[in-house]
Amino acid sequence: MASADKTSSSNPLASLWHAGTPNFRVLALTGILWTVPLALTEPYRFLFCHRLGLSESTLGLLLSADLVIRSLGLLLSGWFLRRFGAKRMLILADVLSWVVPYLLFATASTGIQAGFGLVLMSVNAFASTPYLCLLAEGALPATRTRAFAFLNICNILPGAILPWISADLTQSHDVVSVLRWLFLFQAVLMGAGIAFRGSILEDLGSQSAAEKTQPNLVKTLRRMLHSPAFRRIWPFLLLQGASNAVWNAWSAIHFTGPLGLPDGAPGWNAQTTAITLTFSAFLILPRIPERKVSQAMGIASIVSLFAGLLYLTRPGLPLLLGIGAIQGLANGILLSATSSHLAASLPRRARDHGFALSFVGVHLGVAVFMGLGSRILAEAPNRFLFMFLGIAALQAIAGVTLLRPARWWRRTRPPQAPPLVA
Q: How far is CA 141 from CA 2, 106, 145, 204, 308, in A?
């Protein structure tokens, strides 16, 4: 009875914390050991590789190759998960895709070594499916959006507090030297988090006889494509992947290069964005009724395009931070709501394969986009703006379709006249 009272609590965070398996609590708590060092280094990772000698085009091609490898890993991740278990698979993939690459970054002296670390991070494809399955298995349908929102808060909260540290350090010291020490710190913390997860996490529950039957990938894909909910949410997933890839690869180089801003600008911008993203995900999204989340996503996508257009003004540092604040408000809704809607659109029996197929499509699409963009726009001075704004425009178009959900349209359709009776 006490447990039932806790899970039915009027406090959304309290009910979420006590519901389901302890996996949610473990993933939320250990996530801090990832997000704290990532908040310090992520705004500068590609700039670090660029300073070691990798060109912008090479970085785009490496990211494209990374996404292709991730796609292959995701296709196999469901098979590995069913044979070795989600917990074991998550632990091994985390070691290979987080600890080892950041040790390489900490010791790299050439761009080639740093590039190898970037590609090795693609092994994370084997971690994303078990991570999402462990989370979705323990989250109740009524709190699924809150679960993803709360985890996103845990992921981004350090980014709202810490990037100014790396920004100030890079202002007063050599960027490459500072990042080497931060990468080493990152590898140590992530290793500690992996060890803690290995001792606490509970694997997925036992499967029924029907669930033990391996679902056919082609049949799973066919079911997904016939789902209206999946067809509506997957374009957002694809466009978010493309937007993140362009931003991660070239934004810091664009800020410190063509815009002529100081080396601390990527860190300050990341912190501003994280602050408003946290506010949006923590205070706005959990208070939006589930039936209204789609409309909120549509509005957020249009706001995100408006913020992106402001980059055409060649902003100084104050305006750059203002643009980041607007983007954070929009992304706080888009990121959490998209993950929640994707989980809800997938059949439980084939959820592992469903997640894998969803992200395979995203990675392959983004890989083609980044590869072609890197080659076609190799000499373009405004490559970052051209690609980033193009993605934002497509996302806004997709968002407009969510402003008129099919059920809402049917409810507001004019009533039909009654048939004539002879």
A: 20, 42, 8, 17, 34
Q: Would the pLDDT of 242 be above 80?
A: yes
Distance between CA atoms of 34 and 25, rounded to whole angstroms? 15
Torsion of CA 180, 184, 186, 189, to 10 degrees: -160
Query: Distance between CA 174 and CA 39 in Å, rounded?
Result: 19
Residue-wise pLDDT for 195-215, tens only, equals 988 888 877 765 544 444 555
Question: Mutual orientation of helices 32-41 and 23-30 as an angle, nearest 10°?
Answer: 30
At the top level of CATH, which class does the domain 20-201+217-404 belong to?
mainly alpha
| C-alpha of 226 from chain center | 25
Whether residue 314 has pLDDT greater than 80: yes
Do 101 and 118 meet the contact criterion of CB atoms below 8 Å apart?
yes
DSSP 96: I
Name residues whose C-beta falls within 8 Å of residue 214's C-beta, 6 or more positions apart in sequence. 82
Angle, CA of 378, 255 and 253, to the nearest 5° = 45
pLDDT in tens, 134-149: 776 656 666 666 666 6
Of residues 183, 203, 181, the one with CA closest to residue 191: 183
Distance CA 144, CA 149 (A): 9
- Under the banding of pLDDT at 50, 70 and 90, the label for residue 414 is very low
| Burial of residue 205, with CB atoms counted within 10 A of its CB: 0-12 exposed, 13-18 middle, 19 or more buried | exposed
